[in-house]
Design goal:
The structure holds two protein chains of two kinds.
Chain A: H1 3-6, H2 10-14, H3 22-46, H4 48-84, E1 88-92, H5 98-109, E2 114-120, H6 122-133, E3 150-155, H7 162-173, E4 178-183, H8 186-227, H9 229-237, H10 242-285, H11 297-322
Antiparallel strand pairs in A: 1-3, 1-4, 2-3
Chain B: E1 2-10, E2 16-25, E3 30-35, H1 41-48, E4 56-61, E5 64-65, H2 74-79, E6 81-84, H3 96-107, H4 111-124, H5 140-152, E7 158-162, H6 170-185, E8 189-193, H7 197-203, E9 206-211, E10 214-217
Classes of the chains: A alpha+beta, B alpha/beta.
The complex binds adenosine-5'-triphosphate and magnesium ion.
């Protein structure tokens, strides 16, 4: 294996009885890897504070983008549902005869841009309002039904984009039977714009925080390397390759990622739980059963993987720069 | 085994520690390297171990020109050189066992596989039973011997020793020298830098003498580098 024994005379290579088969070397490679991997866990306990702080920074840094991701994910699924429900409400004049209403409804239904038409007559509207609003019997004191008949128009899919639905609204508003018309789209657009902004900044934020994590892990590993400078010199003197010396430090970075990832899970779950309490309050106001969905299994695995990759990357950058630079004197 | 061709070494700062040194050490030979303090003995050994590069000239080991060795190959070369240092160079937070086993670990041995060899090496230097101790619990001479055990544990074809008996009493020094002699007898090449001229005289081996960076005697009889023609060189 060595330079000297390989190219040397029989006599001197005979002084060297280390002769190891390929398979044995392969097995030994994995055994030493395992040993060094577990050994580097012990490294963490050698400098518990530095390790703990680095792990905490790693985990908490990933919590922010992970939580934002959960928020964006939920907002997207929510606006996705609402998008399907893009509909135009036509409030009809109160002085129309039943027959006029029926024929108007038929006319609208036959329009190319319209998919379905649903008439909520004023009696039914009042009933529903009585049940859902909780005003109940208070409504009995009303002398007449204050609600108009409402025609709910759902456009065909091609007419659900805000601009086209707007045009359809304009057309329908001109009808003689219509008192006023409303398209519930503007707030949806605004919500979507906000979600987009959050989504875009989420990517930028995630990249910046990942960079910070890599630098912090790299710096911690760099200090660990410099702390063991003398040891590394001695190991090089007795023939250790850079790869051999680097491995424990790479494993340390790996463990930082493993533990930091778990911390990210826990704190993200706590954050989502905290946010969902206020979301529940909000959705209760709107009588909605919407619930905030946390990270699912595959997303947790991705988060873990990201943490591990960042830990490895940080330590890799540190060992590349600093292990090779140490020369025995 | 070792060949120096017109080797000069100038340290950064301009100090010339070796000046046009030329000699050859055949495989399996044991030779001493003597000279006053600062003569360049350690520098010469460090050139062989690739801890320094020559400023001029060539160093060859087994025909390999060290100037042409890539840094990637250096670890493998060092595995074939057992080195013993003036200042022991032990890992203070590791046991004697782990210190001696280090070269074996690096070659991929597990702790249990290394056990027999480590014990044999510790036996040879008379430190049996000290495996569990830490270097700090040993005397200077015992630490020196741990360093020797580490150098011989993987049976390298070349041993370099820098003041291996510096901290030892005369009896132990002789024993250690006889140990080197026994390696020499099984074919290992040995180069020992030392101040202990009495011991050198007693051992009757080749003696290379450095003075102010010049090799004034390469230890071969009738050599042109032996201007004084004395049996023992004097440098004072
Ligand atoms: N890294 C260095 N930088 C500059 N000069 C150095 C360096 N190492 C050694 N020297 C100088 O080179 C000269 C030779 O040093 P070297 O260590 O080879 O001497 P030596 O023969 O081993 O002496 P000793 O017997 O005291 O160990 C000394 O004068 C020393 O000052
Ligand atoms: Mg010296």
């Amino acid at each position: 294996m060595g330079l000297i024994s390989s190219g040397s005379s029989k006599k001197s290579s005979g002084a060297r009885s280390v002769k190891i088969s390929f398979w044995r070397r392969l097995v030994m490679f994995f055994v030493t890897n395992l040993q060094q991997g577990i050994g580097s866990l012990g490294e963490l306990s050698r400098t518990p504070w530095a390790s703990l702080m680095t792990i905490a920074v790693l985990g908490l840094s990933l919590t922010l983008p992970a939580t934002l991701y959960v928020v964006v994910k939920n907002a997207q699924s929510a606006t996705g549902e609402w998008d399907q429900a893009a509909e135009i409400s036509l409030f009809l004049r109160k002085d129309l005869q039943t027959q006029e209403i029926q024929s108007f409804r038929e006319r609208v239904r036959l329009m190319n841009e319209v998919e379905t038409v649903n008439l909520i007559d004023r009696e039914a509207g009042l009933r529903e309002f009585r049940e859902s609003s909780g005003f109940g019997s208070a409504l009995d004191y009303l002398q007449s039904n204050p609600l108009p008949d409402v025609l709910v128009v759902v456009p065909v899919p091609e007419y659900r984009s805000s601009e086209r639905a707007q045009r359809l609204l304009g057309v329908l508003e001109q009808e003689r039977e219509v008192d006023s018309a409303r398209l519930d789209l503007q707030w949806l657009q605004r919500l979507q714009a906000i979600v987009n902004v959050v989504e875009n900044s989420l990517a930028a934020l995630a990249i910046l925080l990942s960079l910070a994590v890599v630098l912090i892990v790299g710096n911690t590993i760099r200090l660990a390397i410099l702390n063991r400078r003398d040891e590394i010199m001695i190991m090089k003197l007795v023939g250790a390759t850079n790869a051999y010396i680097q491995r424990p430090f790479l494993y340390t970075g790996f463990w930082y990622g493993v533990i930091g990832g778990v911390i990210a899970w826990i704190s993200t779950t706590l954050m989502v739980w905290w946010i969902s309490a206020s979301v529940a309050q909000l959705t209760a106001l709107y009588d909605s059963s919407f619930r905030l969905a946390g990270l699912d299994f595959s997303e947790m695995m991705v988060l873990w993987l990201v943490a591990i990759v960042l830990g490895l990357l940080g330590s890799w950058i540190a060992v590349r720069r600093h292990v090779a630079a140490i020369e025995p004197t | 085994m070792i060949r120096f061709e017109q080797v000069s070494k100038t340290y950064p700062g301009g100090f010339q520690a070796l000046k046009k040194v030329t000699f050859e050490l055949p495989p399996g030979e044991l030779a001493f390297l003597t000279g006053h303090s600062g003569a360049g003995k350690s520098t010469l050994l460090r050139l062989v171990a690739l801890m320094e590069r020559p400023s001029l000239g060539r160093v060859l080991i087994n025909g390999h020109d060290l100037n042409k060795i890539k840094s990637r190959q250096i670890p493998y070369l060092r595995r074939d050189i057992g080195m013993i240092f003036q200042d022991h160079r032990l890992l203070m937070d590791k046991t004697v066992f782990d210190n001696v086993a280090l070269p074996l670990y690096i070659e991929g041995f597990t702790q249990s596989e290394a056990k027999k060899r480590v014990q044999a090496a510790l036996d040879k230097v008379g430190l049996r039973g000290h495996e569990r101790k830490y270097p700090i619990m040993l005397s200077g001479g015992e630490q020196q011997r741990v360093g020797i055990a580490r150098a011989i544990v993987n049976k390298p074809p070349l041993l370099l020793a820098d003041e291996p008996t510096g901290n030892l009493d005369p009896k132990l020094s002789l024993e250690i020298m006889q140990l080197f002699e026994s390696f020499h007898q099984v074919g290992v090449s040995v180069l020992i830098a030392t101040h202990d001229l009495a011991l050198v005289a007693r051992m009757r081996h080749r003696n290379l003498v450095l003075k102010d960076g010049f090799m004034i005697d390469d230890g071969l009889a009738g050599s042109q580098f032996d201007p004084l023609g004395e049996e023992l060189p004097s440098w004072d």
